[in-house]
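for the writeup, i need someone to sanity check this before i put it in the appendix. the sequnce is what the collaborator sent (i think, or maybe the updated version? ugh). structure was predicted straight from it, no edits. if anything looks off just tell me and ill rerun, i have time this weekend
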Amino acid sequence: MRSLPLLFGLLWLLLSAGAVAAQPVTGPVAGPVAGPVAGPATGRVAFGPQRTERIEAELVPLSQWAAPGSTTVVAVRQKIAPGWHTYWRNPGDSGGATSLTWTLPAGVAADPILWPLPRRQRLMSLMNYGYSGEVLLPVPIHVPASARPGEVLTLTADALFLVCSDQMCVPQPLTLSLALPVREDAAPLARPWGAEIERLVETAPRPAGIEARLTGRDGRLVLTATGGPLAGGDVGQAYFFPYDGDRIDHAAPQTGQVGPDGLTLSLTPGKRGADTALTGLLATDKGAWEIEARPGPPLPGAQGRGGLAPLQDEDAPPSGGGAWRFVQAMGLALLGGLVLNLMPCVFPVLAMKAASLSAAAHDPRRARRDGLAFAAGVLASFLVLAGALLALRAAGQAVGWGFQLQSPGVVAALALTMLLVGLNLSGVFHVGAGLQSAGSGPLSRLPGAAGAFFTGVLAVVVAAPCTAPFMAAALGAALVLAWPLALAVFLMLGLGLALPYLAISLSPALLARLPRPGAWMTRLKGVLAFPMYGAALWLVWVFTKQGGIDALGLLLTAALLLAFAAWLTGLAQDARQHGRRPAMATICAALSGVLALGLAGVAAGAARTADPAPAGEGGPLAAQPWSAAATAQARAEGRPVLVNLTADWCVTCKINERAALSSPRVAQAIKRANALYLVGDWTRRDDAITRELQAHGRSGVPLYLVYRPGRTEPEILPQLLTEGVVIDALKPKS
């Protein structure tokens, strides 16, 4: 595994393909294939159909063999599960196009995909372009004249399909291979796909002598096209599919008129207007053609004979129900945020909440201000984290919820922050001059609303590694919605987290029940420091798991220097209260703080390059490292499989492992069932685990799966486990 640097970059998810186990070779001609095989020396040969739960794919040839110096066609056949789809070259408002990375013998070359006409796929306010059911993507293959008759060319493509439903998307990398014989004479069509590939190649949209212009007018884009097959004015339906994703509003309706020489379409502009040429496919009820509309005045003869109807799209999925799904995701996010307050990840921050509530309990105006500021800090932090998550995934990073704690730098910074908060609560130094009032004493808060806002920020950063019940479905839905809708779901999750504190701060009746300020608050403040020290120790332990002992030594030295700087700051504050100017203490505190931060950066760098220590198998439950191959092998042997996807920074995961997964009774149940226990460690970044989480609609850990013999889909166990839940899941089900 590699540690994830703290990136806040930009857009979409295209993952590297992994190796797929080879299957028996089936030659494209009848009888055995003779002669040497010329192909890549990578060992990654996967002949025949390759399958996942959502898609089956293979390379299929146009002809039974290829002649030297000729161009043949090989197609990527996709058989997509019902309810799922893949994408065209321009996916539309969301999604990602199928990509192919070829490994070919010397001299053989592959052209880009000849994309068939896509279907429109509407989801709520989005419009995507893609395919469902069974589809062939033809690719021209150029065979060199030096190819020898009798040899067999091994063509291998690493294909990445983004397979989506109306609720989630799953990247599916597959390695596809085809053995293509070389012969001198003309080749007949291969069965069973040769005739269909030939039809697709012959009817593929291509230029057809159509002249087109693009005109900006009154906030619209007017596309006029005349000549070629459009002449005669007998077109009744039309739709334009752009090659670029930012030129038009895909979801907006396209209206138009037909004229004696062509047609006119009125389009809604996207980010770019009519300043450059617009290329794409003009699809009509008479055929589809590739056009390039150059900026200029409208062409004559493109209207005057009546209106155009929208092009009928027989395979387009129904658009109903999208708004209801969005409302469901919002409701689940609110519930998930409320439950998140009860998760162990949030316990350290409860100390800061309690301190703030106690200080403002009998000052309703201050309580309201602090409650609103705390909620603002929570919502702003959720917005930043969600935006970073969406941007990183869109940029091709395989990340999930809690991704920031996969970075040793973030873990080190949080550990030092928790240490500072604890020292502040212990009275070593004070933040702000207004915290010395007799009734309250120094609290872990900045003066006024800033402190409450900071508390909300810290609550989100610490709570983010947890996922609570109801969150999985909400996050899974959010990550496939358009980004404004996705951010709305994340904000609702933040509102759920902030709601209890906000409700108390806005309720005078509840505030009146709290004790009045007094000496007890000073003692409470001291007690509440210890959860912060505990959180700092936990983060240091996580950092050790990520970076090893050497990086730990550097971080502990940084913590010592930071504590020294805090102590010197406290001395300087006391001196100022007595009218002195503590220049030396202030300078030494600043130097110590700068050294601490620099050393923490060095520690994070060392952790990023360190090899993680191998995980132990402590406890009565012997585990093996998770991998998709290990799961598949055990299932092929007819064994049940218990999968635990976890991380050291996930407190809920560790509690479940102590309370349920380390139990001798569970170990006995696994032994009785002859089950395999696999643990996937997500403490540091692991793209395979990220993809497995995404495949089951999750964005974070924990995730517990039980695969039973004879069943395709696993059972997903609750996020809070008990012995009984695990034991019952391992029992044979009729």
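Residues 519-577 form the longest helix (59 residues). Confidence is low (pLDDT under 50) at residues 1-43, 314-322, 432-445, 613-619.
thx in advance!!
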